[in-house]
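Internal ticket #5521
Category: modeling
Description: The requester needs a full-assembly model to guide mutagenesis choices. All entity lines are attached below as received. Residue total reported by intake: 1101.
Assigned to: D.W.
Attached entities:
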Amino acid sequence: MQAFDYIRAQSAEQAVALLSQAGDHARVLAGGTDLLAQLKEGRRKVSLVVDIKFIPELNELCYDPAEGLWLGAAVPCYRIYNNHAVARAYPGLIDAASLIGGVQIQGRASLGGNLCNASPAADSIPALIAHAAICQIAGPAGRRHVPVETFCTGPGRTVLAAGELLVSLHLPPPRPGFGAAYLRFIPRNEMDIAVVGSGASVQLDERGETIVSARVALGAVAPTPLYVQEAGAALVGRSVADAEAAIAEAAGLAQAAARPIDDMRGTVAQRKHLAAVLTRRALRIAVERAKSNLSGAQQ
Amino acid sequence: MSVVADQDMKEFKVIGSRPIRHDGIDKVTGRALYGADIRLPGLLYGKVLRSPHAHARIRRIDASKALALPGVKAVATGADLPSLSDTVKALGEGSVNLKYQSTGLLADDKVLFHGHPVAAVAATSIHIAEEALALIEVDYELLPPVLDVRTAMQEGAPILLDDLRTRELGDQIGTQRTNVAEHIRHQRGDLARGFAEADMIVEREFTTSTVHQGYIEPQNATALWNGDGLITVWTSTQGAHSVRSQLAELLLLPETRIKVIPMEIGGGFGGKINVYLEPLAAILSLKAGHKPVKLVMNRAEVLMATGPTSGSVIRVKMGVTRDGRITAAEVWMAYEAGAYPGSPVGSGMNVVLSPYRIENLQIDGYDVVVNKPRAAAYRAPGGTNAAYAAEAVIDELAEKVGLDPLAFRLLNGAQEGDRRGDGPAFRRIGYLETVRAIQESDHYRTPLTGPHRGRGVASGYWGNWGGKSSVSASVNADGQVNLVEGSTDIGGSRTSIAMQLAETLGISEQDVKPYVVDTDSVGYNDVTGGSRTTFGTGWAVYELGLKLKEEMLARVHTPMAYSQPMAYSQPKTSASPSKKLRLSSTTTARSWRAPRPTPRNTAPVSPRTSWTSKWIPRRRAIWSTPACWTTACRSRPICR
Amino acid sequence: MSTRKNETMVRARINGEEVAFLCEPRETLLDVLRNDLELTGVKEGCGNGNCGACNVIMDGVLVNSCLVLAVEAEGRSITTVEGLAAPDRLHPLQQSFLEHAALQCGVCTPGFLVAAKSLLDHNPHPTEHEVRYWLAGNLCRCTGYDKIVRAVLDAADKMDGN
C-alpha cells in the first residue's frame, strides 16, 4: 500500500480543515471497508487519511420519537440494527443495514460511508431515499443540508465539494401508519452486490385506509441510485384495500424509470424485470408494515 | 521361517473409524505453518510486476530507478532465467513445455496475458518492493488480444506464439503459424453408416467458461539460494518433489542441490502443482547476495495469473434408434490452453463418451492458445465440461425416445470389455450395477411432490491415477511409529495414511505419528492430486507395514531361536497367549493434554517375547511402491 | 531492518496481553498481527473483506483485520484464533471442529473459529439458519460448510451444558 499520514480528527471542523489543506489526496476513513480495498488496489492516490470515527457527532446514533433519527456518518451497521427502537421505527433502513456484506463488514461499514462511496448498487441508498433522509454536510463555508436523493451525482461521485464532509443523516420521525422496506436481488443469499435493489415507503392515513404518501427508489439501474418520484405519486390517495392495483402501477413506473446497463451481474432485460418485481414486493411489505404500525411507531 | 499374521481383512479396526486428525490441534489453534507464515533471519520481501495488457510485445524494460531505491536488493527479469529448449515434461496432472513454462514465469519478448510476470523485485520490506514495481519502466507495443477459442482458431487471428505449429494427429507438424497447438482424434467404426442407422439425431453446441480453482490460500514461495550453491525452498504445494524437478529443469540445476520444504497448503484443487513464484524467489535470492526471499501473491494476482481450468467449446452429435440404441456419436471439442499449449483436452476426450457403448464414433480435440493464464489442473481436469456436454445430449435423446434416463443407460451403458471413447477396453467397472441400484433406490423412486422439483441423472468417467509414493517409518522402543511421508497433506491425508499403516501393524492410528517432510528426507513422491494419495501412498504404507512386521518378527525369532511360527496380534488381544505380540500398549491420545505415559506394570507382553531396544533397534525401512499401479488403476470409471 | 515511514506507536490488548507495537499508517491490523506480533494463525485469503480468513474480534465486534488499519487498534482489545484456547484445553468450538472434521486444508479454519466464537458470544443458542447467515462472510473451499455448521451447533449445545 502507498504511504500516507493518518490523523484521528477530533471534530468535524478539524476534519474539514485537514481535508481542505490536503485537497484531492486526502480521504475520509470511517469503516474502511471500501477505502482500504481501494487503497490496496492503488485506485486512489492518497497522502492523508482522516479517521472520523472519533468525532462525537459522527458517531452519534440518537433516536427521538418526536424528532426522528440522527445517524452519524461513521456509525457502523451493527449499531443501527442492534438498536431496538431504531429497528422498529426504520424498518427499511434495517433491511439494508443488515444485508450489506457479512457480519464482519457490518461491524465496520457505515451508511455514511456507503453513501459517500456512491456506488450505483449501494444497498443503503434506496432505503435512505425511501426514509426521506437529509444529509448534513460540513464544509469550509459552514454547514448545509441536501436530500439524500440528490447526494450522488455519478458512480463514485457526490455533491461533496473540496473540503466537505458528510456529518450525519437525519431521518424524519415515522408517524403512525408508516412502513418501509428494502429488497435486493443477488444470485446467492448473502455477501453479494445487488443486481437490482428497491426501497419503498408508504404513509397511510390514521385509519389505515388510504395511502397518503409514498416513496420508491431503485439501486443498480442507473449511474446513481434512482428516486422514482412518479412511482410514489401513483400511490397517493389510493385505497389500501385495493392497494394491489396501485402497487402494480407503481412497479410499472419504477420499471419504466430504470435505465440499467448490461454487465457481469445482469442484463438490461433482467434488471428491468427485477425493478418491477422488487418494487412490487417492497411496496407490499411496506404496506403490511404500515398497517401493523397504525397505533404508532414510537412505542 | 514363516510368519502367520492373524489379520482378518474383513474386520478393519482402524479403517472406517473417525479419528481426530493428527494435524488437527495445530490447525484449530492457528499454530500450523502455511507457506506465507514462514519467517527467516534476513528475509527479503518480493513482489512481481505484471503486465497490464493481455497481449503485447516488450520493447524495453528499464529497472534502474527501481534498483536505485533504498532497500531494493534485487530485480529480476526474463533475462535472468536460463534459456530453455522445447522439452515436454510430465507434471502428474498434466504436462508442460519447459521453454514455455519459463517464459510464462517471467516474460521474454512478449506478454501473453493480463498479469503475465514481467519483472520481480526483492526489498527489505513489502512496501518498498511495491514502490519499486512502480519505478520499473516497461515499454509495450500493444497487440490485439485473443480471448476465446473460436476467435483464436479463425483464419487471420492474431498469433500468440510465433514458433507454434499444429501437432496434427500425433506426429505431423503443421507448417503455418497458428494458435492451435494440437489436433487429436479418436475414431472407430463407420460414422456415416452409424448416423444413417439412426432414427433421430441430436446435435448441440456448448460453451463453458474459464473457471479458477479458488483455493483460499494464495500462492507463495520463499527461497534461499545459499553461498554453497544449495537452494532451499519453502512453499505451499501439492507436490514438493514436483516443485524440485520443475526448479531443476527451469534453473538448469541438479535436483540434488535443491531442497523443497512443503509447508501446510491451503487448498489447491490442481492449481498448486505448477510453480509460479518458486523460481523467481530463487533467482532473487541469488541476485540479492544469497538472502532468503519471500513472495506471496495477493488475491488479484492469484485470479489473474495462476492456472484456471480451460474454457471450451464442445459440439456433440449423437444418433439413436427409435428403441433407444445409440448408433453413432461425433464430438468436436476445442479447449483454451491459456497462453501456452497444454489444455486438458486429451482427458476431456477420454471422458466425453466413455460411459456408453458406441460402435461408430469420432472425437476431435483441439488444444488452442488464447491470451489468458496457462490452464492448470482442476478437479478432473478437462473432464467436467466434457461430461456436461455429452450428458445434456444423452438426456435429450432419452427424452426423445421416451425412455427413463436410467433405462436409457442400461440399454447403452458400457461394461467389461467395451471400449472407451479413446480406445482401451474397460475391465469390470460396475456401471450398470450402479444404474440398477439407483433404479431400486428410494432416492429415485420416491414420488416428486410440489413445484420446482426434479431429479437428474448423469454419468461420468474418470480414472484414478496411481503414481509413485515413498514412505519410511521408524518403530520406537515404546512400540509407536514415526511415519515419514512425502505426500503433502491437503485435506487430512496424514491421518488417512497413518490409519492404513496402523491397520496393517495392528496398532491405533494415534500410535503412528505421521510427518510430511522435505525432499531430502524421503524418497520420491508424485503430487497429491488425481485422487491418488489415499490409494497410492496408502498402498506404500500397507506394504511398508507388512515389511516392518516381517522384519520385526524375524528379529524376535532369531535371538530367541523359536522353532515354531510366531503370530502377530491386534491390540485388543493383549491378554492373548505368549506367542502373540503386540506393538504397543499405549492408549490413544486424543485430548489436548499430553498423553499420560502408560504405567510400566501394564505392559501386556510376556517377558519372554517383549521387545526391548536392545533387540529391536530403531529400524528404518524404505519402501517404494511398484510403478505398475499406474496401469492397474487408470481404467476405473467413477459413476455418478 | 526495513525503512519505515511515519511510524506510530500503538498500544492494544491482544489475546488478553497488553502489547505495544510500532507500525506505519499504511499497515493493516492483519499485517501487524502476522508480521510483527507473530500471530500467523490469522490468515490472509483475499485482502478485501470477502473471505473472512483474517477475522478477529475487536472490542467485541467481529471484523476483517485486512480492512482495519493497525493504527486504528490503538486502545482496542483484540482476540485472534490464538486467544481461543485455555492453557490446558481447547475452546469447545475448536474441539467441536476436530470432532466433526469441520476442516480440510485448514487455512480458513482460524477465521471460521473466530467468527463462530463471536456468534456464540452474541447468541449462545443460534439456529442453523442463524449460523449459516453469521458465517456467510467466511469462505471455505474444501468442506462444503455443512460440517462447519454442525460443529458450531454442537459446540453451542455443549457449551450450554457446561
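Resolution: model delivered.
Comment from assignee: The mean pLDDT of chain A is 96.
Ticket closed.
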